[in-house]
Amino acid sequence: MNTKTEKKLENKLIQFFKQLYLRSRFFYILIGNVVLFIIAFIIPGFFLTAQLALLTTFIFLIIDIFILFSNKYKLEAERILPEKFSNGDKNSVSVKLRNNYNVLIHCILIDELPFQFQSRDFKIIQEIESGKRIKTEYEVTPSERGEYHFGDLNIYAGTVLGLASKRYIFNSGQMVKTYPGFLKLREFDLFSIKNLAHYYGIKKIRRIGNSFEFEQIKRYIQGDNIKDINWKATAKKNKLMVNQFQDERAQQVYSIIDKGRMMKMPFDQLTLLDHAINASLVISNVALGKQDKAGVFSFSKRTDNFVVAERRNSQMNLILESLYNVSTDFFESDFGNLYGAIKRHVTQRSLLLLYTNFEGLDSVRRQMNYLRAINKSHLLVVIFFQNTELKLLTKQTARTTQEIFDKVIAEKFVYDKRLIVSELNTFGIQTLLTTPKNLTIDTINKYLEIKSKGLL
User: Spelled out in words, what is the top-level CATH class assigned to the domain 76-179?
Assistant: First the structure.
């Protein structure tokens, strides 16, 4: 036998033993055989029975291995990943399986999930009839943006005998990028223009401002601007009639995301930064739907990820790509630098939605001059977060001295948040204090309120 033939045979044997796995059932039966031999040692009449049982076990094992490793048959599988994952949402992953064996196959599917999921016991068990195709799905929920690398798709195929398995490996080294939560766009897409909005907590507010684009003449109702009364139509109908105008369009809406160290705090498996990014994506989509121009940028020590406010078809893709790799840098955010960047790049009066987090009144007062200066040229809305854990702590009953102490401190921090709102409102700065969970809804509410009142 020449060297090449020996190497081929050696490789085949290595490949065979790499794919062969003995199942638990085989070892349980083997333990039973050992017990029979022990009994046969005590009662000699059982020796032949033990030998037959052991021989039968290995005959069935050989049959099982022969069926699984016959070249005529094999198992086919394919992992189907979405083009991209949506951060913080449930994303579906599909696996297609086809049984080319002429017998029923029991499959144990073990997918090597990306390390970000920290899953070590993922397993799906399926049965596939001969010649059949099936599709199985499972869901994953990413909690951070970035690249998610999948490992091997391992499938252990076995027959009804259940003594051995053959390991198949598919789809090694697939990667999916995780973007900000774009799946929420579908959820909130129509709410800003449909009457369904109030079912989801979005306020429906009467427009009390003025704009210049005439829409229709309608009957006067309480709350309409008396300056818009159309006296000619009133004389004709013998009822008070008013001119109704469309909201001004093509206004600039910028989402400004603070990526300083305070935004690293985790809530509901996502950081405050991720909550802010997801909300920015949704509000940008809503603004574009309202014919406004949407833009974003982030800041900390310096300003990054700047996307100019425009109303074009590719704007949402530009925003997605810009926010894809934004991460906190653990520095103290420089609001002076932010003011300078806004002065240079945002020349038209715009709505600025500033996502940040203040924990104390002193931290706000240090930045107040910059916030007031920004608010002079633009309509600034400061959006910051309630600490839901502290709020829960204030509602708990204190039984010990330490618990009383903790509760008082928690109440102080909660009260400080309300003082921050009052301080900002004193200087005419719009504020939104919300929980991470309600951030998106409350931000849309605030945007629609500003649009309806014609404040911009």
Answer: mainly beta
